[in-house]
TrEMBL record:
Biological classification of the source: Eukaryota, Viridiplantae, Chlorophyta, core chlorophytes, Chlorophyceae
Organism: Volvox africanus
Homology family: Belongs to the VPS37 family.
Listed Pfam families: Mod_r
Protein name: VPS37 C-terminal domain-containing protein
Main location class: other
Keyword Protein transport: yes
Length: 342
């Protein structure tokens, strides 16, 4: 009785697995227990991948886990590839009085159609309703292209029997996204290899490295490294181009420097010559001389008038002209001095 109870959860999960295989042709069971199933589909970019459905030990009471094998940026997919849809979030939220009745060997609880509906909801969220329907993932007939692709794949692949045998790899899978679970990887190794790994830690590490390099995370890391190497090469080439440009600029500057300096010195000398003749100091000096000259001329007229050398009419006329010239020149001098001070 105890052995039967221990086998019952495994039997239940295989019932659900069988339901998935019927609902999604081309699906593959990954492990011998039938708790992990890969449902192949195609992204909008044309890349082939699969939705991995993992049924926990306490399924259907515990919710299933849905993961996309290829790293995908999507609102419904987290960075680890795990899919989040409303049906999963509400899994098991109904009380016992809402559960479906037992059917044909399926235990009371959430039935296979409910699991299929959640998976179809995930496909619709990831691909959109039209694309998912075109690939036959929403329950309707697939498009002609999808049917032809499935038929071509069917010639090279096989489904899993309810006995738990794992199907052979399907060409639908992208080789870059079909990584095995550790248990499946270990089961595929010969006994002699397993014994060698138990006895030799280096062989164990080598086998672990072989498995790790085929995981989605390792491939994504390798893609990032490849992109970084390409970016580094581009940066090095750009740095060399910048250094060459700097060298050309230095050559041009050194060739033009002597000519430019000679021209500058010539213009500077011409400016000094002009300032020597027409500068502020020279202008003030000339205005002072002119002011003194006009002032002396008016004094000379006054002396001549006092000595009776000029008539009154001639003195007045010439003296007014001389003083007017003096005042005009003196005002210019005062303005120039004020401008020079400010």
């Amino acid at each position: 009785m105890q052995a039967v109870e221990q086998q019952q959860p495994l039997y239940r999960r295989r019932d659900y697995t069988d339901e998935l295989l019927r609902a999604f042709p081309g699906s593959q069971v990954v492990n011998a227990e039938g708790s992990v199933v890969d449902l192949p589909f195609q992204l909008s970019s044309g890349r082939s991948t699969a939705l991995r459905v993992s049924l926990p030990q306490q399924f259907p009471h515990d919710r299933p886990v849905l993961c996309v094998l290829v790293p995908l940026q999507h609102p419904s997919v987290d960075p680890s590839g795990r899919v989040h849809v409303r049906g999963l979030e509400r899994w098991g939220a109904l009380g016992a009085h809402h559960l479906f009745p037992q059917r044909a060997g399926i235990p009371t609880g959430i039935t296979p159609p409910d699991l299929v509906a959640v998976i179809r909801e995930a496909f619709e969220a990831i691909l959109g309703e039209a694309a998912a329907a075109k690939q036959g993932l929403l329950g309707g007939p697939a498009s002609a292209d999808s049917v032809a692709g499935s038929a071509a794949r069917g010639r090279d692949s096989q489904l899993v029997s309810l006995a738990g045998a794992v199907a052979s790899p399907s060409p639908f899978y992208d080789n870059n996204s079909n990584s095995l679970e550790p248990s499946v990887f270990m089961e595929g190794l010969p006994t002699a290899k397993l014994r060698e790994m138990l006895e030799n830690e280096a062989e164990l590490k080598k086998a672990a490295a072989t498995w790790l390099k085929d995981t989605p995370a390792a491939r994504a890391l390798e893609d990032v490294r490849r992109q970084n190497r390409a970016a580094a090469e581009d940066n090095r080439a750009l740095a060399r181009a910048i250094e060459e440009a700097r060298g050309h600029v230095a050559i041009v500057r050194s060739g033009d420097y002597a000519t430019t300096r000679a021209l500058f010195e010539e213009l500077y000398k011409r400016q000094d010559a002009v300032l020597a003749k027409m500068g502020t100091t020279k202008l003030l000096e000339r205005l002072r001389q002119e002011s003194d000259k006009t002032d002396a001329a008016s004094d000379d007229l006054l002396d001549r008038f006092q000595m009776a050398d000029l008539s009154v009419e001639a003195f007045v006329e010439q003296y007014v002209v001389a003083r007017e010239a003096f005042h005009i020149t003196d005002l210019k001098r005062q303005a120039a001095e004020h401008s020079n001070l400010t």
